From TrEMBL:
Organism classification: Bacteria, Pseudomonadati, Bacteroidota, Flavobacteriia, Flavobacteriales
Family annotation (InterPro entries): Class_I_gatase-like (IPR029062), Peptidase_S51 (IPR005320)
Family label: Belongs to the peptidase S51 family.
The name this protein goes by in its record: Dipeptidase E
NCBIfam families (alphabetical): PRK05282.1 (NF003642)
Source species: Lutibacter maritimus
Recorded GO MF terms: serine-type peptidase activity
Pfam families listed in its UniProt record: Peptidase_S51
CDD domains: GAT1_Peptidase_E
Protease as UniProt keyword: yes
Amino acid sequence: MKKLLIASTSTVHGKGYLEYILPELSKFFKGIHEILFIPYARPGGLSHNDYTAKVQEAFEKINIKVKGIHEFNNPIDAVNNAKGIFTGGGNTFLLVFELYDHKLMSTIKNVVENGTPYFGTSAGSNVAGLTMQNTNDMPIIYPKSFITFGFVKFNINPHYLDPDLNSTHMGETRETRINEYHTINDTPVLGLREGSWLEVNGSKVVLKGKLYARLFQPKKQAVELPPNTDLSFLM
């Protein structure tokens, strides 16, 4: 049975990297002493080594070792042997490009569907949906496909932002862009606000954290969903 934590972000205001979600991660990876980290999204251009070191520093607090997938000669074997997987945030286009380039998209999907725990933040959460088409990132590289893991049967918009009613900015809001997506696509989109995450066990999906999420569906008004909402109806 698949088991996932799909988080909007790695860092919330006023706290350190992963600090807000470490108690959940301690339970989620209970009994696991080492996880495989996928640093391909490279936030801010971080090297794979530096990104992995940053993740290791956070996971040390819950006594879990981290090994970057770039440290293995055979990344497919690394995935197949992993006890747990964390895909970090950064640029989703780059992440998806690398996953396809290393022939890992189907490999990761297979092991997670068969029970390897998967934790994702930001770009690593965006790819948990059916496609990456609701990323907020710039297309710095062209991946083989926009199709991603499909662990949940909808798309995820991490870092969802509400319109600032006091702003004079006249550009498109996040809601406008998602509505544009729905002019030619039917896949539901869940806007995850900072500090929220999805807990997935098999086909059961529950919204966690203290904030509401915003659900967009084609030809329907967007709706606000409170914490602990069961989203299994989208599966």
